[in-house]
Each structure stands twice: as structure tokens, then as C-alpha cells.
């Protein structure tokens, strides 16, 4: 059952990352990978909220491990950072790594605080 | 504006690469279905590693750390291979966007860092935060370099 829920969540999360990335990248012309940053922040906010509430193991598998896990990515973030550096966009590379980590932690903490405040 | 594949920045989808721009309109169901299947496989593999190596809230998340560094090594190698030897239109969506994107995770990484701080282990949190960045980025470079060397060797043997 857990396996099925992880599969279901990831089967939605991974294509949603691709579609979000496309939609965000189509709206600007800078080399900064805003698309990946968007999915990573959204997933961190949601997972932060999920761990703040008494979620069942089924919900954790579906939304946490499956959906948030597949929506967010380290491989794409890592590749983009290295590529930006190699393309000569060193400031973008450093900014991408730094902003991702700082904003990601902020998003996770914000999600946790919001969910905690709502559920008491 | 358009850039060839070797100048790609985003392995998921880089709209400056003409083939990436066209792929969704050309085969929407195949591309999204392939990504979903790959993502499910990657997520299951990650869940397997996380279940095998659990960690307490104040501990170092070795499983996710290993998954993210390994995924970065593999994306470096995969993209080097695909740049040198273009494959079918669904190979990058399946392996890169799906399997490796689903295998690695950013949300668990930052949530685990936050939890370690909340559990009173800021040192562990900082070590985990920094170690992932300091190993994942060189892992991409290493994957790219190793794959590049193997491709060059295979190329020399083919022309011998």
C-alpha cells in the first residue's frame, strides 16, 4: 500500500516539476534557473507543513515521500549550478546554490510555522 | 537565443535547446507519462534507501545525503553521455527528469535540516547542510568527467 502511494505521489510530482519548469522558464529570459527554484520552494513549503501536522503514514507516503520528493530535486539544482559556473555565469551559480538553500530553509520553516499555527 | 545542447543549463527542460522546446507539443502523453514512470521508480528507490537507513530527528540524514550526492554524480554522467551521443527523445525525460529527479529530493533535505535545529542539534544541521552542497556539486563534475573519459576511450577503441 505504501509503495502504491509513493508511486502515485511521485507520478504526479515529477511531471508537475517538468511542467512548472517549462511554464516559469518561458516567462523570463535570464539564465537564472527560476523554474527549479520555484518547484524546490513549493515542495519545501508543503513538506514543512506536512511534518508539522499529525499526518498518517499513508498521507506521509503519498504527499511527503512521493509528491514533495519527486516535485523537488537536488540533481537538477546541482547540474544547473555547475553548468552556470562553466558557462561563465559564476555569480548566477553561487546565487543559485545560496538562494536555494537559504530560501528552501525559510520555506520549510514557514510551512511548519503556518501549519503549526493553523492546527494549534 | 537558441543554444546547442552542449550549452544546456537545465537538465529537466531547457527552452533554449530547440529539441526541448518542441518535445512536449510533439508527444505530450509520451513525455509526461515517461517522466511520471521514471519519477515513480526514482522515488521508490529513494524511499527504499531512507527506510533501510533511518535517522533520529537530531541525527545526520545519511540516507538522503547519500541519495542526493549519488543522484548528482549520475546526472553529471547522464548529461555528458547524452550530449556526446544523442539518444531517443524520451531518454532524458525518463532518466534525467524522471528517475534522477524523483530519486533526489530538495524538500526532505531542508526539512531535515530544520528538524535537526528544532531537535537541539544545530551543529549536525549545519554539517548536513554544508556537506550536501560541498559534495553534491563536485559529484556533478566527477560524474561528467568520468563519463567523458569513458566516452573518449570508447571512441578511440571504435576507431582502432
TrEMBL record, chain A:
Family as reported in the entry's similarity comment: Belongs to the fluoride channel Fluc/FEX (TC 1.A.43) family.
Known role: Fluoride-specific ion channel. Important for reducing fluoride concentration in the cell, thus reducing its toxicity.
NCBIfam families: crcB
Topological type in the membrane: Multi-pass membrane protein
Organism: Micromonospora auratinigra
UniProt xrefs under InterPro entries: FluC (IPR003691)
Name by which UniProt lists this protein: Fluoride-specific ion channel FluC
Subcellular location: Cell membrane
Reaction catalysis annotation: fluoride(in) = fluoride(out)
Residues reported in the UniProt entry to bind Na(+): 69, 72
Automatic annotation (TrEMBL), chain B:
Segments passing through the bilayer: 29-48, 60-82, 94-111, 126-152
Pfam families in UniProt: CRCB
Annotated binding of Na(+), by residue: 101, 104
Keywords annotated in UniProt: Cell membrane, Ion channel, Ion transport, Membrane, Metal-binding, Sodium, Transmembrane, Transmembrane helix, Transport
Biological processes, Gene Ontology terms: cellular detoxification of fluoride
GO cellular component: plasma membrane
Protein name as annotated: Fluoride-specific ion channel FluC
